[in-house]
TrEMBL record:
This is 2-isopropylmalate synthase. NCBIfam families: PRK00915.1-3. Gene3D superfamilies: 1.10.238.260, 3.30.160.270, Aldolase class I. It comes from Paenibacillus hodogayensis. Keywords: Acyltransferase, Amino-acid biosynthesis, Branched-chain amino acid biosynthesis, Leucine biosynthesis, Manganese, Transferase.
């Protein structure tokens, strides 16, 4: 199959998304992860924009030597930008210079304030200048999808004549429709002199939600490189999403006749890492990596999934490193799904009479909360069978908050295996930080607090808060979620749920009794 290069611009165009700024050290960490993911080309920043960006591009150029990743220096069509880009990427084993200039009439008039003739001359001069330092030059006529074909063709001919080796035809405003965008690539390849001597790239924004569709249309029209960002971050509505584009190709590659070099097993890890470093949340309904992407609440869908996963899924989440959690219990769930979760997955034995009573209680809870977490389900099961089912339970949570002082949290935890009840107190700058420190001390095993998502379940003063927590115990990860009227209590219960999951799934090596006693006694009070 034809190989499609993945050009990642998360650290350049993606970082231009409001609120997504990265520190140079973060860019270096993320660049390593992108190389691990298998991207072919990496645009790690805009060297002229700041000393920090210059330093990050320079360090990444050195750091990724031997990785096979081509490093791109991004520059406006001005000599100072080109000099900075060339200098920042000087140590890269494989490198490219990426020069851009506006091409649509509205940008020429109101942003660049240049005539078409002036733009063509500038493009010629700057590509020729860049060619003195770098063999591989990519040229991007910004807003190409809104530029007239006649001028666009003339501009592209000019830069090819000066030595440009990659022509990117960007849909900068996400304006194009797939059919017309694909047609534009075909006409450039057919009509432009020298058009058959260069590579073609596509760079699409998502303003009308068609970035992936437009990119695929370009691929079908001859583009061999797609410019993407992780999680689709970028200016306004973002860029073409790496994970969506790659999985569309992976899922339909027999039809498309193309493939990529991306190791899809690292997609979820990369997505979560990027989200955390950018402090940019992932929408629940985000394709591929969103929380709901492989979850099912409808009773009809759940029944089909339990019989055969292919009934309502076209991808396997495990192949992308996504934890399997397909059944979400809510008011639309049926008896079959609840029995499967309790008996088959949690391993709790119940009689048919008890299951029927559980289903009645479950429906009442689901009507009130919309979604029933494992923590709440196990509590309902415990009431039905009249015994505690989890190793640990929260007896009490208290937090003292002051805007002028540190927050103080205290928790009381009951260990149902030993029958002991212990209390812990901690001080920290934040309420949740103090709370997690308490829970860490309460557990007879070491854990790392990895991630937290908070969501309001409704509007108004009486809204329930949903907390989703991820912890790491050794090299294994465990999730817990909880819903409560109070945010802090929801986090505490979610964290406790994750700890109990670690115990339930055999993911912890219990501490020795003397260490356990020492930890408990130090926390009494």
């Amino acid at each position: 199959m034809k190989k499609i290069k993945i050009f990642d611009t998360t650290l350049r165009d993606g970082e231009q998304s409001p609120g997504a700024t990265l520190q140079p050290e973060q860019k270096i960490v993320l660049a390593r992860q992108l190389a691990k993911l298998g991207v072919d080309v990496l645009e790690p920043g805009f060297p002229i924009s700041s000393p920090g960006d210059f330093s990050a591009v320079q360090q990444i150029s050195r750091d990724l030597n031997g990785s096979g990743v081509e490093i791109v220096g991004f520059a406006r069509a001005v000599t100072q930008d080109i000099d900075a880009a060339v200098k920042a990427t000087a140590d890269a084993e494989l490198r490219r210079l990426h020069i851009f200039i506006s091409s649509s009439q509205i940008l020429l008039e109101h942003q660049l304030r240049k005539s078409r003739e002036q733009v063509i001359q500038i493009a010629r001069d700057m590509v020729a200048y860049g060619k003195r330092f770098v063999d591989r030059i990519e040229f991007s006529p910004m807003d190409a999808s809104r530029a007239g074909e006649e001028f666009l063709f003339e501009l592209i001919e000019a830069v090819i004549a000066e030595g440009a080796t990659v022509i990117n035809i960007p849909d900068t405003l996400g304006y194009a429709l797939p059919e017309e965008y694909g047609r534009l690539f075909r006409r450039v390849r057919e009509q432009v002199r020298g058009g058959d001597s260069v590579e073609y790239s596509t760079h699409c924004h998502n303003d009308l939600g068609m970035a992936v569709a437009n990119s695929l249309a370009a691929v079908q029209a001859g583009a061999t490189q797609v410019e993407v960002t992780v999680n689709g971050v970028g200016e306004r509505a973002g860029n073409c999403s790496l994970e969506e584009l790659v999985m569309a190709i992976e899922t339909r590659k027999q039809t498309l006749g193309v493939e990529t070099s991306i190791d899809i097993g690292h997609i979820y890890e990369t997505s979560r890492m990027m989200s955390r470093h950018m402090h940019f949340p992932i929408a629940y309904n985000k394709p591929v990596v969103g929380r709901n992407a492989f979850q099912h609440e409808s009773g009809i869908h759940q029944d089909g999934m339990l019989k055969n996963r292919n009934t309502f899924e076209i991808m396997e989440p495990e192949k992308m490193g996504i934890p399997r959690n397909m059944i979400i219990l809510g008011k639309h769930s049926g008896r079959h799904a609840i029995k499967h979760r309790v008996v088959d997955e949690l391993g709790i034995s119940m009689t048919e009479e008890q299951l029927e009573q559980l289903f009645v209680d479950f429906k009442k809870t689901a009507d009130e909360l919309k979604r029933v977490t494992d923590d709440q389900l196990i509590q309902l099961v415990g009431k039905t069978v009249n015994r505690p089912l989890e190793r640990f339970s929260l007896v009490e949570v208290q937090v003292v908050v002051s805007s002028l002082k540190h927050r103080v949290a205290s928790v009381t935890v009951r260990d149902h295996e030993t029958g002991r009840e212990s209390s812990y107190s901690e001080i920290a700058e934040g309420s949740i930080e103090a709370l997690i420190r308490c829970i860490k001390r309460a557990m007879p095993f070491d854990l790392e607090f990895v991630d937290l998502e908070l969501q309001s379940m409704s509007h108004g003063e009486q809204a329930n808060a949903e907390a989703a927590v991820e912890i790491a115990v050794g090299e294994r990860f465990f999730q817990g979620s909880a819903i409560d009227r109070d945010v802090v209590v929801a986090v505490a219960r979610a964290c406790m749920g994750a700890c109990n999951q670690a115990v339930r799934d055999g993911g912890v090596a219990e501490a020795k009794e003397d260490g356990y006693e020492k930890r408990k006694s130090s926390g009494q009070g």
